[in-house]
Amino acid sequence: xxxxxxxxxxxxxxxxxxxxxxxxxxxxxxxxxxxxxxxxxxxxxxxxxxxxxxxxxxxxxxxxxxxxxxxxxxxxxxxxxxxxxxxxxxxxxxxxxxxxxxxxxxxxxxxxxxxxxxxxxxxxxxxxxxxxxxxxxxxxxxxxxxxxxxxxxxxxxxxxxxxxxxxxxxxxxxxxxxxxxxxxxxxxxxxxxxxxxxxxxxxxxxxxxxxxxxxxxxxxxxxxxxxxxxxxxxxxxxxxxxxxxxxxxxxxxxxxxxxxxxxxxxxxxxxxxxxxxxxxxxxxxxxxxxxxxxxxxxxxxxxxxxxxxxxxxxxxxxxxxxxxxxxxxxxxxxxxxxxxxxxxxxxxxxxxxxxxxxxxxxxxxxxxxxxxxxxxxxxxxxxxxxxxxx
Length: 390
Prior knowledge:
This is Hef nuclease. The protein is an alpha/beta fold. Helix content is 47%, strand content 10%.
């Protein structure tokens, strides 16, 4: 939060946005960092440990810059990435100065004297705390969420009662996570159990396009059985078919409820041979959810979808109330982010009544699912819902 410690009001104004002061911007950024850290902790202990070490490195970079009387504050440049890839401090500084000159934005180089000395002493205190946390977490070799996953991998996710694809397909599983470190950790364990894993991220999605299609797309002309499990980040949440599988695990719950439905839509597609899609969701811990309120946010948005569109598949919890949409009687809130969409749907219903009725009569009805899973000592819960396949 270096912006808070500028001595000059001119320097502060340089980074203000519209009506946002540097105090407001700094506090918001700090809150975002807190939320991201909790999200990483909820994803996996491996991901959280990596984030702690990154924070340790970033804090040390700022201390080094202050000690060298060369402080870069650059909204347009990833300063920490420049320090990570450069062979030494001086080279990194030269590279950053070159980029500042090229971008001509708000990125600047400051002197230590431009900031209050209190900032340096507070950074040293932060670094001491972070060092202690890193040492503690480096001694930790367990993860109760991963332990719960291990316990239920074969008994639930590969249970032949639900994961038994028709035809000649082997059982398949789709897993979504938001963290690369979590992806790698999951893949290592799954492979240790004898399953063949395809790992997909933004770095390799394009080159694996044909592998994904051949092994997980029920509509593929050329079909292969090289993999049993696909573990992926959000990069496969849309634009791809994975419906040779009918079991999906959301190892991390995304903030955006639409993203959750898009994930499930990868396996709930026309062409699936299975009558049901089985969805498993890991809830965050009680302690973590108190900080980020993810369950409440996801549930509220999904319930709004059910109310507006007559959604008949539960996505996140059996507590979701399914209903038929009635746009004529739906109350509109001027502050609601859905008001625009409701208005558009009403217009479509009025202008194209026959087409509207045809779409509403499509058969996508759901048979009620059942909550499954278990809460361990730390509070993780895996929840299962069932959907009638398209």
